[in-house]
Amino acid sequence: MEYSHRYQAYPTDEVAERLEHHLDVHRQLYNHVRWDYENSPADNKLSEYDQNNKLPEWKQRWPIFAELHSKAAQATVARFHRNLSNLRKKKEKGYNVGRLTRQAPSDYRSVTYNQSGFDLDEKRGHNTDAYVRFSKIGWVKIRYSRPIPDHATIKEVTIKKETTGEWFVSFGLETDDAVLPEKPDMDSLDASNSVGIDLGILNYIHTSDGTTVEWLDLEDEYERLRREQRNLSRKENGSNNWEDQRRVVAKVKRHIRRKVLDYQHKITTWLVREYDAVFVEDLDVTEMLEQSHNARNKQDAAWRQFITLLEYKADLYGCHVVQVEPAGTTKECARCGVATAKPVWVRDHSCPSCGFETDRDANAAMNILQRGFEELGLGWPESTPVETVTATDTDDIYEVSASHVVETGSLSS
């Protein structure tokens, strides 16, 4: 299993200056890798392996590249080819994308050391501090808020300068699956220990057993962001005042991102602790955002990030997470399977065939649960949530906010 730990870093002024220099040299190397690739024959494009083999020659021809650690330089070559691969995948899916462009200084903000060239000293710091050594750069203090587990292997280390001017260090970790908790046997799964999750529009999520978690309220944060962006637009571009205000805007954006991530951590941790199996829709996030007038809120929810966190934590807590086909989960009746078209503003499900009535999102969550069992090749349990939700008891579906659930102890990161 692969995952990462991220810590805020506090380089000294001298080390920060060297970091800035190395960032710029890595940027120049990235741009040269791109130029070299673009100018290779169309029928014989250079591979990552080919360009790694060119590094010694480039270091002799341009001594500035020799200032970089060999593994860090190789990671920069890998970065270009990874971006190239992602671009190809988008083209294959029909997206209208162009070519990889040159990286400006403001675009290139991180350096990765892969396999070697770094050391972690957990004893050198005081209290919650530790130090990381980057070869050819120096030691950097980090706020070591959560120790790296003894059973984890550090595969790579990345140091990044955010647009706010803050530095962060991320450790890419790998853990042997043998030390992870064993997941429940498939045959033990039933409707009482499993849940279907509908990622909603009016609410954040709706579960098949009747819980709704509401959207994170970011209105105050977005109002402040709009205000600070207006202030930025009044400054002279490139002036000291403009740069100071740009950092203010970046910090507000960072605050919003952190608030969303914290919200997702709480919800996903609660789900994998509470249930043996969690079933979610395999959603085309880009298509959802392009089709929705409410794209900003959905983007804040970061569907893919939510599911990624869910899958990562499922391995840590011994829970199954299964993505199912989303088509028709809202239209099909969870009781009889008859599909009924309904516009997005219709929030109730009322089946004209069997008379089953419930909340629209509750019906979708029940369908997701059922499809999850089908995906695993399990029989649908005789006692299901569908049998306990009728037109007369739909009021039992209750809505909670994250803050409320945190107070009760159900959610914890």
**Content-based structural category:** alpha+beta
Number of domains: 2
Quickly count the helices: 11
Strand order of the largest sheet: 2-6-7-1-5-4-3
Into which percentage range does the β-strand content fall? 15-25%
Helix percentage: 40-55%
Q: Count the strands?
A: 15
**Quick check: average pLDDT?**
84
Please tell me how large the radius of gyration is: 25 Å
Low-confidence stretches: 387-413
How would you sum up the major sheet?
7 strands, antiparallel
Helices and strands, in order, run as EHHHEEEEEEEEEHHEHHHEEEHHEH
N→C terminal distance: 20 Å
* Shape by Cα distribution: globular
Walk me through the structure.
Residues 303-368 form the Cas12f1-like TNB domain. Residues 215-245 form a coiled coil. This is Transposable element. One of its GO terms (molecular function) is metal ion binding. This protein is α+β, with helices and mostly antiparallel strands. It has 2 domains: 1-180, no CATH class; 186-408, no CATH class. Helix content is 41%, strand content 19%. The strands form 3 sheets. Strands 2-6-7-1-5-4-3 form a 7-stranded antiparallel sheet. It has a 6-stranded mixed sheet with strand order 12-11-8-9-10-15. The protein is globular and about 75 Å long.
Topology summary:
Blueprint: E1 2-10, H1 13-38, H2 48-61, H3 70-92, E2 110-114, E3 118-121, E4 129-134, E5 138-143, E6 152-161, E7 167-175, E8 194-199, E9 205-207, E10 211-213, H4 219-233, H5 240-274, E11 277-281, H6 285-291, H7 295-301, H8 303-317, E12 320-324, E13 348-350, E14 357-359, H9 360-375, H10 385-388, E15 398-400, H11 402-408
Helix pairs in contact: 1-3, 2-3, 4-5, 5-8, 6-7
